[in-house]
Amino acid sequence: MPADDIQQLFQNNRLWAESVEREDPAFFTRLASGQSPKYLWIGCSDSRVPATTVTGLKPGEVFVLRNVANQVQQNDASAMSVVDFAVGTLGVRHILVCGHYGCGGVRAAMEGSAKGTLGQWVSNIQELWNTHENQLGNLDPDDAHARLCELNVRLQVRSLCQHASVRQAWEDGQALDIHGLIYALEDGRLRNLNLHVSSRTQADAFR
User: Could you report how far apart the first and last alpha carbons of the chain are, in Å?
Assistant: First the structure.
């Protein structure tokens, strides 16, 4: 029953909180006093890619933005507000744009199967596929999809480089690095896509 499902969440939460308090009695007191994470994680909403779990970080150590297909869209007020707060208020040191292989949002864009709001949301990935279709269309479909997932990370890093707060941080001399990563569901490992930007000069040259 649905009510039982919700009760299970409360039970899980109670057991988790109790175990944390046993290991570190002051943990929640410290957490309640404020946050100073080093990282902003921009990832997919996919339930199999939880940011703190795959990075081995704890509550308070990573600020998180998640949406379908790890998008950084300039007209998305929610995403832009997260970046503003992370960079301008929290002063994060690293922004991690992380896609994942097997992404359903990327596949929907690739196949043209996304409709309604979802279709609008992944339309830039559809355009990305159209741009590279002559090249990727010659690959095995799974390999083409994997490559499109990687290209999508590049696209979102490029978009992030144009964010006003990010560019202002660099202009002000704030240390801020953007990294493009991808996660493999089949082995639980993060891959570095070597998409690294740490200055306005690098951002302007990034393609």
Answer: 51
